[in-house]
Amino acid sequence: MPKIAIVQAGTVLYDKAATLEKVRKYVEEAAENGAELVLFPEAFIGGYPKWNNFGITMGTRTPEGRQEFKRYFNNAIEEHSEESEFLENLAAKNNIHVVIGVVERQASTLYCSVFFYSPQGYLGKHRKLLPTALERCVWGQGDGSTMPVFNTSVGNIGTAICWENYMPLYRMTLYNKEIQIYLAPTVDDRDVWLSTMRTIALEGRCFVISACQYLKSSAYPDDHALRKEYGNDTVLIRGGSCAVDPLGTVLIEPDFTQETVRYTEFDLSDITLGKMDLDVVGHYSRPDVFQLTVNEEALSTIVKK
Amino acid sequence: MPKIAIVQAGTVLYDKAATLEKVRKYVEEAAENGAELVLFPEAFIGGYPKWNNFGITMGTRTPEGRQEFKRYFNNAIEEHSEESEFLENLAAKNNIHVVIGVVERQASTLYCSVFFYSPQGYLGKHRKLLPTALERCVWGQGDGSTMPVFNTSVGNIGTAICWENYMPLYRMTLYNKEIQIYLAPTVDDRDVWLSTMRTIALEGRCFVISACQYLKSSAYPDDHALRKEYGNDTVLIRGGSCAVDPLGTVLIEPDFTQETVRYTEFDLSDITLGKMDLDVVGHYSRPDVFQLTVNEEALSTIVKK
Amino acid sequence: MPKIAIVQAGTVLYDKAATLEKVRKYVEEAAENGAELVLFPEAFIGGYPKWNNFGITMGTRTPEGRQEFKRYFNNAIEEHSEESEFLENLAAKNNIHVVIGVVERQASTLYCSVFFYSPQGYLGKHRKLLPTALERCVWGQGDGSTMPVFNTSVGNIGTAICWENYMPLYRMTLYNKEIQIYLAPTVDDRDVWLSTMRTIALEGRCFVISACQYLKSSAYPDDHALRKEYGNDTVLIRGGSCAVDPLGTVLIEPDFTQETVRYTEFDLSDITLGKMDLDVVGHYSRPDVFQLTVNEEALSTIVKK
Amino acid sequence: MPKIAIVQAGTVLYDKAATLEKVRKYVEEAAENGAELVLFPEAFIGGYPKWNNFGITMGTRTPEGRQEFKRYFNNAIEEHSEESEFLENLAAKNNIHVVIGVVERQASTLYCSVFFYSPQGYLGKHRKLLPTALERCVWGQGDGSTMPVFNTSVGNIGTAICWENYMPLYRMTLYNKEIQIYLAPTVDDRDVWLSTMRTIALEGRCFVISACQYLKSSAYPDDHALRKEYGNDTVLIRGGSCAVDPLGTVLIEPDFTQETVRYTEFDLSDITLGKMDLDVVGHYSRPDVFQLTVNEEALSTIVKK
Amino acid sequence: MPKIAIVQAGTVLYDKAATLEKVRKYVEEAAENGAELVLFPEAFIGGYPKWNNFGITMGTRTPEGRQEFKRYFNNAIEEHSEESEFLENLAAKNNIHVVIGVVERQASTLYCSVFFYSPQGYLGKHRKLLPTALERCVWGQGDGSTMPVFNTSVGNIGTAICWENYMPLYRMTLYNKEIQIYLAPTVDDRDVWLSTMRTIALEGRCFVISACQYLKSSAYPDDHALRKEYGNDTVLIRGGSCAVDPLGTVLIEPDFTQETVRYTEFDLSDITLGKMDLDVVGHYSRPDVFQLTVNEEALSTIVKK
Amino acid sequence: MPKIAIVQAGTVLYDKAATLEKVRKYVEEAAENGAELVLFPEAFIGGYPKWNNFGITMGTRTPEGRQEFKRYFNNAIEEHSEESEFLENLAAKNNIHVVIGVVERQASTLYCSVFFYSPQGYLGKHRKLLPTALERCVWGQGDGSTMPVFNTSVGNIGTAICWENYMPLYRMTLYNKEIQIYLAPTVDDRDVWLSTMRTIALEGRCFVISACQYLKSSAYPDDHALRKEYGNDTVLIRGGSCAVDPLGTVLIEPDFTQETVRYTEFDLSDITLGKMDLDVVGHYSRPDVFQLTVNEEALSTIVKK
To answer: Of E57, E291, E301, which has the smallest distance from its Cβ to D134's Cβ?
Structure first.
């Protein structure tokens, strides 16, 4: 009966230290409440600067937009870094799994990633395969080498970030790795998100947990143009975190009103109840008609011989 | 601006003639109301004998169950048959497209199929690829040779029957054929069906139209055991037909109370509004990571050399 | 001694018919002046809606932005279409090669492409491999199957669009196909563009011809927000078309002041003068140290078996 | 904010001692002016005997040319040598990085190399991969084992010598090693060199620093035929050293008139401004289409088992 | 008892037609005299412009030199070309093997090659692996894919061009392919050449046949600077063609005075006389101590996936 | 300017003491004449019993032949022995390098070796890798552990014995060790030997010194059958010692008439004159095509674990 905490909160934009402090606070709170795994939303570290446009229009990037990007870049973290060690220690100290959306920096490109930590240490990461819309101007694309499903004491866990949840072939890949707890960190706060989560739970016969940011305009620094334009209290991302069981039953209904931590607890063996009549990577597949080839090699422009 | 009629009704079980008469009635009604296409539910001709078990338990089939199957078999239709001509004429006479779920008989096997007719004649069919649960004891499996998307004056139309809607790779195949109006005849009357339809509309950026049977126990013949057990007014399938646009907006909300015909009308070019930021067979795909091979050959156990 | 015409002009935005008429006018003018090939800028058909943002900020696309995208989508052309035939006829009638930037539509995704026509007919196309910044939200990515160099009566011609010119591995691919006349349609009107063109000419030992749009705010329709904001005479793209020979000598200096057609004529055999001491795909390469593998297969998410 | 000194000066040809003295003078001057790194031109030690032909025509080498080569050979230095220690001490004593073009002797072959020294000691070297034109008769080819990018307190530094700057695959290799300060010692004094440096800065989003020799005919010994022919004041190499930032802005304009030391100072974090919209080894690459294999093994005709 | 003709003659420089005519004359003469194979010197087609420097000194290539190179480039031939067909027909018509040095053009790089023709057609080629001295500025390097030994009716034939004869590892490769008639087209007219040919015959236990050009300054066109400088009668290459048997006996002594065709006839089975006590790829080898790895792959900077 | 003495003399067969005395005499003579190194022929100590067959025919060894072998065996010397000390002292006392061919005995096998002594002591040895013809019946094979090139005050010295000079891969190994003075003790007195020595000098760009025995039938003991058959004055080995410089110039012409000591003196730095255009282990190699792996391990049938 794993107990999961879902953090519905927002980044302190462009303030990595304050954001990490917030992470610490929520991890400790989740642990105190008996959670074995705590899920943070997409891009929690690094931030999702909603309504920002980085000075980008067709054919131009303004100097101010470039400066904004640099500020954003400097608040991203690397896979092997002081910040990652901080998270690793946090997971160990609180004896909890931490799964958290981060803006990851490798060399000069940013990625929208999720880092996984168990109490025993760093497990690995997933990089978003396809950023959506303007995200394509700030984040690069992940490849097939970071599509893990980890077998942990909590269950088999993996992740699809935001609109990756609309990529049928990526979902199939996760189902095929026997995912049990499907973690969906996001910033998508539409009403319809819950429908999507239920459908994935039904289709994949897994538990689906989604953590969405709750972000107000006060998250931007005082001196930021959007802060000035929208004041402190405009809701930029309204939350909507939720959880669904393998038969589509909603375990946690969305709350669109506040920063909050939600908890859910369930029995993994209930997955079997659902797989009885639908198993899209087992008896409910047609390998004679459909065959999906997945390339899990790292794609690198330059390789050493 | 195609106008679509959705028939939410039930078969007259084991009475092909009466069922065809019912088809005629609804096609004419739809045409009179200006519809260019009318969609019937899954297995409308031939029927979906809900709660029947055909005398099948683990290890046994009773003689009575075999007789029941024979009765069911005799109410199925062939692709090239009198009944099919009847439907063809109906479509021509009423200048309407007819898409209808049928129990199809080929040699000695039954299939759960959908037949397509335009005012110009018979277009072709789709056979359900994977029957669900006990259906596997009465229907065979279709293969990759009947997965059409037809380019008609109404738009590009194709179909996924009932839980085929939970087959991600089949859906990808339809999206790839540039389906615009995704037709989902079904007998699934759960609450959660709407969530699934919305998710498919969002994922595929297409219009999704689902027609579900509304079937009462009175549909069984007077002499049938289930009629005797449940009387006339037990609701076996409660409907729930619906329609959704490519951004997930519900165009027709489910009605779980009655036999009815529902109408919807929309602008196909709105698909572009949705494809702008999600096109899972175009800019929102990763062919370098995922490649789906689809076998559209007819599978036949015995072939001439 | 091929004579090349370089059209420095702008699209009539969201008015395909008027744009095609403009194409006709310039093709005829170029032919009358004895040109054997006429090069149009990037996205000439379909247009480059400079300073437009399609209502896209981090995390949102506005309904108005989606409508704008639909309008843009409808002004794109397909590879095999009426508009393409129009261009084919134009090339034939005027006995000239036409190389033109177009916004290409395939199914529901747009691409930034270049179409090639000889007097004998359509030759083929190149699709931009990597859109830049906001372009990534409106155009998909081409793949290795459209990287042609055509052997024509004018010489061996190929193209790199806008910032593809900063992709060293793509340039290597073109050099390896023995490109002689390197066509660089663009909307990049920075001062530094000429430096880049000279460097490519020097590096590839080829003639480099770049055509840039000259676009004023009057190109937007009367009712367009940007037209209202900027009036008729704001210069959105200021031109800067140029031509360089294989030793880096500038044949045509940029003109940043007007719509214009520029002409250049040169002797292809002068390429040898440059290859004498630099041939990066021949004697000036180190295949024992560097080996570039190029995948020219079409990448398709779904393939028929 | 690293401060870089660029030495634009010439070798005292065939006089190693006098040349080393000149190196000492410039290193001290650079250090006094606060530079953290000083870059010398190509072949500064050993020399670039411009306009010399070593008695080589097609099919012949004259005895006099061989004697000239021997003189040249004797003025080359080895990697581990007294001269190298001299440079090491110079760097340490003046607390400065020294990057210097040398003619390197290994066994009986000469190489055009660059040696790197930090205040802490010798870092390593790069050997020119492909000599140009007549250089091929006096210098051998380096291999993939000497293509370093060093992470120093000044930044990540590496080098491409003279026309190696026209080798796209070598440049890609340096970019991939996260070069920040791209050092381009050269003897190329053409006008067009600046265009090339700007393009590399733009393409690689790095700071590009080029040091060119300024060499007059008086650099040849009194008894040398070219000294006699050209007198003391003929300019053999006219300089043109320059520096460019990652957005292509020229930080130091070429001076073609004199021996001089130029200084530039910049903020490495500005690289991010440029990488935002172009990162050819990150988000602006297509590893699914282009893959470059780099062999960094030392190539040796004879290896011990 | 194969009979071999050795053509000691010179190219008509920069006059491909006249050179081919000369080839025709000598092939016919050789055939009339009963030869089964005729060997021409290095670079016979395309020419060896002795004492030319193509305007190359350290650091410069003059415009005149580039023009000269272009002239030279235009007189080279391609592998599959009209000129090659001419040679093929000549071999067929005269029922003779033709082995001839050519300057080969592929794309924009020249190579010093030898083309082999039997009476049955074109056999293949060898490209010089390492040009010498100034040749490195006009010819590229061949690779391991063109190191053939052909089994013909005359015997097993292969070739090493000019100073390739000083490459022990290439010679080993030819010996290992069971070369019987080692063909050494050259322009090396030193006295010591005969010593080298004898040593190779002794070492490889094969028949060695060397054809050297005999070239006078009149071979340059009237308008050429070297023609003007040296008049008509300066001997640029003085010949010295020779033949040696496997025990080092000189079969044809060099003639340094004229254009001439020399003939030799021998018994291939005499090779066994020599292999008895020396077989460097057989009993006289030490594979436990020395192992030579030969890479016969074509080296290509760019390869299709 | 090393001065080398070449001893052209013969062993006193089967009389070790007399032979050592002869060695002493020639070493002193050489030292008096200012030589810094004295080279003796192959097998000088131990002897080369020319025309002897040791009673060996196919399938038989006679008892007399066995006795002859025993006599020969007893006149061989060991590496660490009284005789070797004698030589060591001789070198020290006369302040000269001694390089001498010996028949070396280890356990029960004989080897054809060369021992090297400097004035400072014993340097090491080389064992012939492959005896020729009947030598294979009296001498074993050396291995890769004795292929030294010694860096001495005279220069870098190494050796190839007799027909080892026809082993291209062994020569490559010596060149690779930067041999400067290539010592070739031999008993090969054919005319063609000089050609071979010249070719090696040219190929390796080194000074080649060859010392051949001058041996008359009187060298056999009075009681020996061959002495009886040929008398005292039949010339068994006629000399032919020689020296060549790196450009192939003969420094000492062979003398085929007498026992003699020849002297040569040269400038090692002239090697650079030759390496300028040929360096088969440097710029004139193709490690991408040919790679020679050399096993310098001692080969021993029985080894301790």
So the answer is: E57
User: How are beta strands B60-61 and B56-57 bridged, if at all?
Assistant: antiparallel
Beta bridge partners of A292: B292
Residues in Cβ contact with A276 at an 8 Å cutoff, skipping those fewer than 6 apart: none
Give B99-136 as a DSSP string. Answer: EEEEEEEETTEEEEEEEEEETTEEEEEEE-SS--GGGG
What single-letter amino acid sits at A39?
A: L
Using alpha carbons, list the distances in angstroms from residue F34 to D19, D204, F263. 39, 64, 9
Backbone φ and ψ for D269, nearest 5 degrees, come out as -70, -10
Chain E nearest-CA distance from D18, in A, is 22
* Interchain CB contacts (distance < 8 Å): D and E: 70
Angle between helices D168-176 and D193-204 in degrees, nearest 10: 40
- Local structure of residue C270 (DSSP, 8 states): G
Looking at the annotation, which residues of C are catalytic? 42
Positions of E marked active-site: 42
* Distance, first Cα to last Cα, chain E: 48
For residue C304, report the phi and psi dihedrals to the nearest 5 degrees.
-75, 140
Quick one: pLDDT band at residue D303, thresholds 50, 70, 90?
confident
Give the neighbor-by-neighbor strand order of the sheet with D302-304: D302-304, F290-294, E290-294
Pairwise CA distance, residues A9 & A16, whole Å: 15
Substitution target from D288, D289, D290 for chain B, most B beta carbons within 10 A: D288
Q: Give tens-digit pLDDT for C254-280.
A: 999 999 999 999 999 999 999 999 999
Which residue type is seen at E149?
Answer: V
Distance CA F237, CA E149 (A): 39
Neighboring chain F residues of C287 at a CB cutoff of 8 Å: 288
Q: Tell me: the pLDDT tens digits for B99-155? A: 999 999 998 899 999 999 999 999 999 999 999 988 998 999 999 999 999 999 999
Distant-in-sequence, close-in-space partners of E225: CB < 8 Å, separation ≥ 6:
none
Pairwise CA distance, residues B139 & A2, whole Å: 40
Q: Which CATH number fits domain E3-275: 1.10.760.10, 3.30.420.280, 1.10.3720.10, 3.60.110.10?
A: 3.60.110.10
Question: Which value does ipTM take for this structure?
Answer: 0.94
What's the pLDDT tens digit per position in C10-61?
999 999 999 999 999 999 999 999 999 999 999 999 999 999 999 999 988 9
Candidates F36, F42, F104, F203; catalytic one: F42
Rounded to an integer, what is the distance from CA D148 to the centroid of its chain?
Answer: 13
| Domains of chain A, residue spans | 3-275
CA distances to B140, B141, C94, C305 from B300, rounded to whole Å, are: 13, 12, 56, 16
Closest chain D residue to the Cα of E135, Cα to Cα: D58
Write down the pTM of the prediction.
0.91
What one-letter code names the amino acid at E178? E
- Residues on A contacting C at a C-beta cutoff of 8 Å: 48-54, 56-61, 133-138, 169, 187, 236-237, 291, 301, 305
Non-local (6+) Cβ contacts of A160 within 8 A are: A167, A170, A171, A174, A182, A183, A184
Nearest CB to E163: which of F173, F278, F288?
F278
Of B163, B169, B288, the CB nearest to A292: B169
In a 10 Å sphere around its CB, with 0-12 CB exposed, 13-18 middle and 19+ buried, how is residue B268 labelled? middle
Return the number of other C-beta atoms located less than 10 Å from residue B145's C-beta.
14
* Touching partners of A (3+ C-beta pairs < 8 Å): B, C, D
- Specify whether the CB–CB gap between E122 and E39 falls below 8 A: no
CB contact under 8 A, C301 and B271: no
Q: Which chain D residue has the Cα nearest residue B288?
A: D288
Q: Say if CB D183 and CB D126 are below 8 A apart.
A: no
